[in-house]
Amino acid sequence: MTFHSPGRFTLVLGLLHLLQMGQDGEVIEMASTTIVVKEIHCGSCEHTIRTALGYLDGVRAVKPDQARNDVRVTYDETKVDEAALRRRLAEIGYEPAD
Asked: In order of start, what are the domains of the chain with their CATH numbers?
């Protein structure tokens, strides 16, 4: 497969990242969401969020962004849902904005 632009290559890599192999070898499509929170103050806040959400079963990746006050999460919808992610953020003091 030949790629003629960096944009296409990035898109393909992004799509591949959202796929995961299950225990039986089946491909599981991962969901991804961005949750806006009221405030992320510092790098320590980012670490706290990454750790707390990362412990939830089914969470694949957590990327908090202090500059944008949001958290991008990639997860397996068969194990965890967005409501659980939002609840966990609220429990640790990072109330979702919406």
From this structure: 6-91 (3.30.70.100)
Nearest 5°: the CA angle 87, 81, 30 is 135
Residues 35-62: tens digit of each pLDDT: 999 999 999 999 999 999 999 999 999 9
Q: Which among 30, 31, 68 has a CA at the least distance from the CA of 46?
A: 68
- Check residues 4 and 82 and name the one with the higher pLDDT: 82
Please identify which residue in the block is written with the tokens 């980012």: 46
Tell me the whole-structure pTM to 2 decimals: 0.74
Question: In this structure, what are the phi and psi dihedrals at residue 73, rounded to the nearest 5 degrees?
Answer: -125, 135
Which residues are CB-neighbours of 35 under 8 A, at least 6 positions away? Answer: 70, 71, 73, 82, 85, 86, 89, 96
User: Cα–Cα distance between 33 and 54 in angstroms, integer?
Assistant: 14
